Amino acid sequence: MAIKSLDSIFKPKRIALIGVSNNPDSVGGITLRNLVSGGYNGVVYPVNPKREAVLGIPCFPNVKSLPKVPDLAVIMTSAKFVPQIVRECGEAGIRGIIIMSAGFKEAGKEGKILEQQVKDERAKFPDMRVIGPNCLGILVPGLNMNVSFAAGMPKKGHVAFISQSGALCTSVLDWAYESNIGFSNFVSIGNSMDVSFGDLIDYFGQDPETKSIVLYVESIADAHTFMSAARAFSRKKPIIVYKSGRFPESAAAAASHTGAMASEDSIYDAVFRRAGLARVFDFGDIFNFTDLVGRKRMPKGNRLAIVTNAGGPGVMATDSLISLGGKLVKLSDKTMERLNEYLPPFWSHGNPIDVLGDATPERFATATEIVLDDENVDAALILLTPQAMTAPTAIAEAISELASKTTKTIMTAWMGGASMREGMQVFNNAGISSFQAPEQAIKAFMTLSDYSQNLSMLYETPKEVPVSFEYDRNELRKKYLKDVFPKARILNEDDSKMLVNDYGIDTTSPIPAANEDEAVRVSEDKGYPVVMKIYSPDITHKSDVGGVALNIKSEEMVRAAFRNMMKTVSEKQPDARIDGVTIQKMVDTKGAIELIVGIKKDKAFGTVMLVGMGGTTAELFKDNRLEFPPLNEKLARQMLESLKIYPLLKGWRGDAPKNIDKLIEVLIRMSYLAADYPEIAELDINPLIVTNTDVIALDARIVVDEEIMKNPVKDYDHLILKPYPESMVKTCELKDGQTITLRPIKPEDEPMWQEMLEGCSKESIYHRFRNDFSFESHQVATQFCFIDYDREVAIVAEIEEEGKKKLVGVGRLIADPDLETMEYAILINDKWQKKELGNMITAYCAEIAKQKQIKTLLAETTQDNKPMLSVFRKLNFKIHFNEDGSVSVKKDLTEN
Fold first, then answer.
1. Mean per-residue pLDDT of the chain
2. Which residues form the ATP-grasp domain (predicted)?
3. Bridge-partner residues for 796, per DSSP?
4. Beta carbons of 59 and 83 less than 8 angstroms apart
5. Among 696, 701, 663, 700, which residue's Cα sits nearest to residue 588?
6. How does DSSP classify residue 482?
7. DSSP H or E stretch at residue 270
8. 344/341 Cα distance (integer angstroms)
9. CA distances from 151 to 11, 69, 128, 169, 811 (A)
């Protein structure tokens, strides 16, 4: 879908209002009045075949009769006429549509059919984009353009607000007028039949007037587009999201523990976290946080110091902080000594720092400065209550002066009425967030802290975890799809464990036994003690029906357990097919931790992974974390560290620490399994036993997605994030015989990437970046090593010297959001130049761009970069020398 054509909606020069009526209080009447009286400088064409004029403005009978083709058509007719009008707009060359009309999928079965008809008509015109139907419209304050039936125009600002709820939009606008909050754009997307959240994030992410984006989400339909766009822009512009409908009832019973625990809201939470978004849970906090995040001072953590002139507000703030998971930081000994030397004897001698009711502006500022100097402090909250000797404005000025000298986050809460307003205005002018109550400040701070952590987690460099497989995974997949998955919707334990084991995760191997005598024989072959489990394709939670017996130590116990299990299971689940039992070796779990690791296929977001506290109480305590494959070492470690039982894994009160590195490898292997098998609807390993040496799957159960078995999907379409593109790895040889591996870059390459740039001359760096590029920081490196493979590809050239791998070159392709053109750039380590490496990388990158169906490859260099110009000539790029000394090159990839 074309993003650039959204200009026709948000920057139109001519607007047609189709279906506008003469009733000034109707949707059309209000929209026309908003446009005409609001100061919009473009042309407005009312369209109504039954009216000569509307509100005194001449009317046109249809879009064909308009004197010029409008950029935007706003449809407000009865729903049944909309498909035809959309077709007429397309035939007239109109590229932007807003459908305000209601009566589509929100209205039931007939409405869904009607909406599909609109989609079918829109599909005939590739360049057409549609917002709605069933929407309020849009407002663009910078253009004085109110294309909506909302009253009034908010002031111009730098926040793009996007909402699925039109009713909520009117409430937010009322509140914005009252609070003097401005917007760059205000969009009601309604049913989002065409233009989605992802499209608008892409569009506003490139808008220089938009500094942050706020989303009100009811549901996300195009999850892949949303995730790709959000990850592309979240590190450049804060994206704040409020998700309504957090606790809907489950539509169907899950067939596994993982399915039961991976709730809709926990999946959305994982989406927002992985995309680097800031999630707020109280709608009233959205703009408090938006104001705070706009100050561009990100705390490194959630360790807060509170400076106050009264004990009560400090206690209120502390209670709020602790309840939300923050930390009231313990001040260092050095800080305590400085405060004791400076403050009156009766100060609080701890955090919160009560500087007492008679505190002067100087005392407030100096105490705050001492606190911010403490390396343990991430941020400070300054609380002020009006007392007889308080000078709120002067204190605000002193704190504002201090804020200009620190990079740490400062928040303030001036608690009171009229006497506090001037001080709060001082903070606003100084770019300091100010709140009316401590709890508001704490909520905003904790959201900011979580947001900062989400961003940093996205770009933490993972360790390389070597993962190898005993089998060719493609051949293995063929075997399971042909011989195993067709057996049943719920695979038996033996088949489930076999696949888990084939992916390098150790399991106990159950052996089926159809009767009592076979159970004895298998048990003796295994060696006592053993575990007996019911063998049935119809029973998922075996322990719930008496289908598990542990620590069986003799033949007599085997026979008794078998008879008792057959009787109990038959009574509790009489309709189940029972094929006997399975016998497996009893694993010594003394001192071990039981975890659950699982996979679930979500309708909206594809395959999601879960890890958490395992065993029979897994669903009761719900101590778990969700993530989306693919996983690397850092993501897997973060999943474990987020669990409440993580201290037990590290070693609790003298217990030996568990094998966390092996556990991380297991999670990564599960990530590969999840990526390779879209046919898996649910998978449980429960319990996964973790000891100080081993990680062993004691039980496993796989639920097959029968629909996918019948209708296979494209590679990785079941994943919201594309995995590392292994298909792009290839081995080549230079003319001198040197073996070169060309492969996509990955986050683990950051150290080698920086080492490669260290081997480049200033001239080479300038030819690549067109400036004196500083590459030493992790923050810079993440922009080049952590990429979304959907819209960016970086192919590195890797060699091996003296047993050590090195990067010696990198070619980078960056696509526009419409995926029509790609910009190309290349850098070769000086030592490896003039060896045909540039030609090899460029040719391969052009091949990849063509495979992605990119139409045009673009690049720029300088006129003195003769080696690169030679490469471009060899590969048939068109070369244009610019007057400023730069060179533009272009290759049409649609040509044979």
1. 88
2. 497-704
3. 743, 810
4. no
5. 696
6. I
7. helix 264-275
8. 8
9. 21, 28, 28, 11, 52
Q: Percent helix, strand, coil in the chain (nearest 5)?
A: 40, 25, 35
Label residue 444 exposed, middle or buried (CB < 10 Å: 0-12, 13-18, 19+): buried
Domains present along the chain, CATH in parentheses: 4-210 (3.40.50.720), 290-458 (3.40.50.261), 473-585 (3.30.1490.20), 593-710 (3.30.470.20), 726-892 (3.40.630.30)
Pairing of strands 212-217, 278-279: unpaired
On the question of pLDDT at 845 being above 90, the answer is yes
Q: Could you give the C-alpha distances from 566 to 54, 457, 562, 575, 586, in angstroms and in order?
A: 81, 50, 6, 13, 20
- Given a contact cutoff of 8 angstroms between Cβ atoms, the answer to whether 401 and 429 are in contact is no
Q: Are 229 and 199 in contact (CB under 8 A)?
A: yes
Q: Distance between CA 794 and CA 469 in Å, rounded? A: 26
Cα(198)–Cα(220) distance, rounded to whole angstroms? Answer: 9
Phi, psi dihedrals of residue 137, rounded to the nearest 5° = 115, -160
Q: Residue 630: phi, psi to the nearest 5?
A: -85, 150
690 Cβ neighbours under 8 A, 6+ residues apart: 592, 593, 594, 595, 649, 658, 659, 663
Q: Is the backbone of residue 156 left (phi > 0), alpha (psi -120 to 50) or beta?
A: beta
Using the CB atoms, write b or e for 301-322: b if 16+ within 10 Å. bbbbbbbbbbeebbebbbebbe
User: Which residue's entry shows tokens 């590190």?
Assistant: 235
Provide the pLDDT confidence category of residue 252 given band limits of 50, 70 and 90.
very low
- Number of Cβ within 10 Å of residue 457's Cβ equals 14
Residue 441 predicted with pLDDT over 90: no
State which amino acid sits at residue 621: F
User: Are the beta carbons of 46 and 32 closer than 8 angstroms?
Assistant: yes
DSSP letter for each residue of 794-855: EEEEEEEETTEEEEEEEEEEEE-TTSSEEEEEEEE-GGGTTSSHHHHHHHHHHHHHHHTT--
Rounding to the nearest 10 degrees, give the CA dihedral for residues 169, 173, 175, 179.
140
Q: In angstroms, what CA-CA distances link 529 with 70, 553, 554, 592, 695?
A: 80, 5, 8, 18, 20
CA atoms within 13 A on the CB side of 460: 18
State mean pLDDT over 677-688. 94
Cα–Cα distance for residue pair 200/218, rounded to 1 Å: 16
- The letter for the amino acid at 280 is V
pLDDT value at 241 more than 50: yes
> Token pair 């089998």 is at which residue?
471
Please tell me the distance from the alpha carbon of residue 238 to that of residue 232, in angstroms, as a whole number: 11
pLDDT tens for 66-86 read: 999 999 999 999 999 999 999
Which of 339, 363, 341 has the alpha carbon at shortest distance from 350?
339
- 872 pLDDT higher than 50: yes
Burial 583-618 (b: 16+ CB within 10 A, else e): bbbbbeeeebbbbbbbbbbbeebbbbbbbbbbbeeb
Token couple for 419: 């006497």
Q: What is the pLDDT of residues 8-62, one digit of tens each?
A: 999 999 999 999 988 888 888 899 999 988 889 999 999 999 888 888 889 999 9
Q: Which two tokens stand for residue 534?
A: 């019911």
- Cβ neighbours of 461 (radius 10 Å): 18
How are beta strands 182-188 and 624-627 bridged, if at all?
Answer: unpaired
